[in-house]
């Protein structure tokens, strides 16, 4: 597919993640999309570029999406999905990004035979630097998988897995991961202020340091541990900081506990 040939899409839920992906798709050249979103403010940024309707009943007659992207909260799936069951068929794939909701449960709500792909993206999709892991459900054709791959890869990297249970830890690591990185920027900024730096400078430094380090990580052939070592001069300042961050019960253990907690929550949201 060329840079301008994304097929017609129906996006259900245009909140933070659905909106981030839509921004990426529009930047990529999405020509036709209908967005079902009951909150006018949520989709306001896309006015004039997509058709926004408040409910499935208002979808323009004759609109035939090649993909229906389910970007509502997991808790809303049971009440929402049955209204889209009539769209199931060989020419339409359902692409869910809902945390926890599994393929079997979604197919049940969509009439039993729908082609459903469960995917877990992340918000850097808005700048086409997302990372998505996706798993095809039963009956998904190679053409439907290729379409989902085109959509997802147009907003970042994509990895496919066959074992759906992997999506729960994926949700914890890459789905929620941007939040952990943004928290890092927040706490670095606060610590800089504590050390007497002006708030404006503290904010700029924290943002630029996190963003620049991410860019270096993306561009460098070295692994993250080596990039860390490259900053850590023997007997220098960073060594002192890392001795605090890497002590028992600090970052490595805390991250492990955090990822386990999020993975458990994804499993709880299942069904
Ligand atoms: N945020 C993230 O980084 C990521 C989120 N996800 C998944 O994406 C999904 C959406 O999350 P997020 O964008 O954060 O949540 P949001 O609450 O920001 O977005 C969901 C949107 O859907 C709207 N909505 C509610 N009911 C319906 C309906 N029946 N039809 C259409 N739209 C409806 C909501 O309106 P209202 O506010 O009125 O309920 C809201 O605007 C979740 O399932 C989440 O697990 C996946 C990966 C990352
Ligand atoms: O917090 C959540 O449940 C969603 C899934 C991953 C990121 N946000």
Automatic annotation (TrEMBL):
Q: Return the GO cellular component terms, semicolon-separated.
A: cytoplasm
Annotated residues for binding of NADP(+): 71-74
Record key words, sorted: Amino-acid biosynthesis, Cytoplasm, NADP, Oxidoreductase, Proline biosynthesis
Q: Which InterPro entries match?
A: 6-PGluconate_DH-like_C_sf, NAD(P)-bd_dom_sf, P5C_Rdtase_cat_N, P5CR_dimer, Pyrroline-COOH_reductase
GO molecular function annotations of the record? pyrroline-5-carboxylate reductase activity
Q: Which residues cross the membrane?
A: none
Q: Where in the cell is it found?
A: Cytoplasm
The UniProt entry's GO biological process terms, in alphabetical order, are: L-proline biosynthetic process
Is Amino-acid biosynthesis set as a keyword in this record? Answer: yes
Catalytic reaction equation(s): L-proline + NAD(+) = (S)-1-pyrroline-5-carboxylate + NADH + 2 H(+); L-proline + NADP(+) = (S)-1-pyrroline-5-carboxylate + NADPH + 2 H(+)
Might you give the EC number(s) for this enzyme? Answer: 1.5.1.2
Top EC group = oxidoreductase
Listed pathway(s) = Amino-acid biosynthesis; L-proline biosynthesis; L-proline from L-glutamate 5-semialdehyde: step 1/1
Entry annotated with the keyword Transmembrane: no
Question: What positions does the domain Pyrroline-5-carboxylate reductase dimerisation occupy?
Answer: 164-269
One short Pfam family name for this protein?
F420_oxidored
Q: Where is the Pyrroline-5-carboxylate reductase catalytic N-terminal domain?
A: 11-100
What is the superkingdom listed in this entry's lineage? Bacteria
What does the sequence similarity comment in the record state about its family?
Answer: Belongs to the pyrroline-5-carboxylate reductase family.
Q: What does this protein do?
A: Catalyzes the reduction of 1-pyrroline-5-carboxylate (PCA) to L-proline.
Write the protein's name.
Pyrroline-5-carboxylate reductase
What species was this sequence derived from? Dankookia rubra
Q: Which gene encodes it?
A: proC
């Amino acid at each position: 597919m060329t840079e301008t040939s994304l097929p017609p899409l129906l996006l259900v839920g245009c909140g933070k993640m659905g909106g981030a992906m839509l921004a990426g798709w529009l930047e990529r050249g999405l020509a036709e999309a209908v967005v079902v979103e009951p909150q006018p403010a949520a989709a306001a940024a896309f006015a004039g570029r997509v058709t926004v309707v408040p409910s499935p009943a208002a979808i323009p007659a004759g609109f035939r999406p090649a993909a229906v992207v389910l970007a509502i909260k997991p808790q809303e799936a049971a009440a929402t999905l049955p209204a889209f069951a009539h769209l199931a068929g060989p020419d339409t794939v359902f692409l869910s990004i809902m945390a926890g909701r599994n393929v079997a449960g979604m197919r049940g709500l969509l009439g039993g035979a729908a082609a459903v792909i469960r995917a877990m993206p992340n918000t850097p999709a808005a700048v086409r630097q997302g990372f998505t892991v996706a798993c095809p459900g039963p009956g998904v054709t190679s053409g439907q998988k290729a379409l989902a791959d085109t959509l997802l890869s147009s907003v970042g990297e994509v990895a496919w897995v066959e074992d759906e249970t992997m999506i729960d830890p994926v949700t914890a690591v890459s789905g929620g991961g941007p939040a952990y990185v943004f928290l890092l920027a927040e706490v670095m900024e606060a610590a800089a202020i504590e050390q007497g730096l002006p708030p404006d400078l503290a904010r700029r430094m924290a943002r630029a340091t996190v963003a620049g380090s991410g860019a270096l990580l993306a561009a460098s052939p070295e692994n993250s541990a080596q990039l860390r070592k490259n900053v850590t001069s023997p007997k220098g300042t960073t060594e002192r900081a890392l001795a605090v961050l890497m002590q028992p019960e600090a970052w490595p253990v805390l991250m492990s506990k955090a990822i386990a907690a999020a993975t458990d929550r994804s499993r709880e949201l299942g069904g």
